[in-house]
Design goal:
Oligomer: single chain
Number of helices: 15
Shape: flat
Number of strands: 0
Order of helices and strands: HHHHHHHHHHHHHHH
Length: 305
């Protein structure tokens, strides 16, 4: 083959995409470095990643991640000024999600890493949704992508750096895998278990469905990863459940942060959605996607015949 032959169009497009992605990555890193001080102040004041980082930092030193004085001291070292700390609300079996953030030197870099995780979770979830519901081939349409990325709650969760998008990824993986890979589908449900109150109607329906359909493999996957998550939590803090209970019993924390995530919660994502609606009008946040019909008959597994 002649080496001087012009590059084919698909290869050229792929090369351009790689160059564009590298350029955007460099631009993002430059932006983070150039505006580090301003972003640090914003992250320290009102971002959930400040709570994730502080709890993870305490866990990596085998200390109580729910200790109000310890969390407040760490957050104040990052520029936090309030008298009431931002506490980690998810139950102990979810601390594995924030544990790696404790290895980072500051809440600022924990925010950057968590934002990358959220963006990756968003992209994967959107791709999974298109794979299940799209009909125009393997590549999502531009309208579908634009609508997905600009959906108001998505913007709100990204701005607040909350874990809602990670929970969405767990559900998307469950729906994708439950038919052919039930064990992995059950394992994916560990992500939504970080905030079980949000899916309070899902769990009893799931239990009835598992028993009636005898999907023991799915239950086995869920139980396996749940026990593994518990083991990780206990290894880093043997008294973590007692510490969690003590944190919930403190009236000051309950007063500023709402109810605990374990039994039902009132997070700040609702306020974030209202903020996002100021930027994106309500009719725009609920568009109908032209031509987005089901390529295959996907539905919740509980209601399949």
């Amino acid at each position: 083959m002649d080496r001087d032959q012009p590059m084919s169009k698909p290869k050229l497009i792929l090369t351009l995409k790689i160059i564009l992605n590298l350029a955007l990555t460099v631009l993002l890193l430059w932006f983070l470095a150039a505006h580090e001080q301003k972003i640090r102040a914003s992250v320290a004041s009102d971002r959930d990643t400040t709570a994730y980082w502080a709890a993870g930092k305490l866990l990596t030193h085998h200390q109580n991640p729910y200790s109000v004085p310890s969390v407040l001291a760490l957050q104040r070292s990052q520029g936090y000024t309030s008298d009431k700390p931002l506490m980690l609300r998810p139950p102990p079996w979810s601390v594995w999600m924030i544990l790696p953030l404790g290895l980072l030197p500051s809440a600022y870099w924990a925010w950057a890493a968590w934002l990358a995780i959220l963006l990756a979770s968003l992209v994967i979830s959107i791709r999974i949704s298109w794979r299940m519901y799209g009909h125009d081939g393997p590549r999502p349409s531009n309208v579908f992508l634009l609508t997905s990325y600009l959906f108001a709650p998505v913007v709100a969760c990204l701005v607040a750096a909350q874990m809602g998008i990670v929970l969405m990824l767990g559900l998307a993986l469950f729906l994708l895998l439950e038919e052919d890979h039930p064990f992995l589908a059950g394992a994916a449900l560990l992500l939504p278990l970080a905030k079980p109150h949000i899916f309070v109607l899902l769990w009893p329906i799931l239990a009835v469905w598992v028993i009636s359909r005898r999907r023991w493999s799915l239950l086995g996957g869920m139980a396996t990863v749940f026990l593994l998550a518990l083991a990780i939590a206990v290894v880093f803090d043997p008294a973590i459940f007692r510490h969690y209970r003590e944190m919930l019993q403190q009236q000051a924390i309950q007063g500023c942060c709402g109810r605990p995530d374990f039994i039902g919660g009132t997070g700040r994502c609702g306020a974030g959605v209202d903020t996002a609606r100021r930027f994106w009008s309500y009719p725009y946040s609920r568009p109908r996607i032209p031509g987005c019909q089901m390529r295959r008959s996907y539905s919740l597994p509980f209601f399949r015949a």
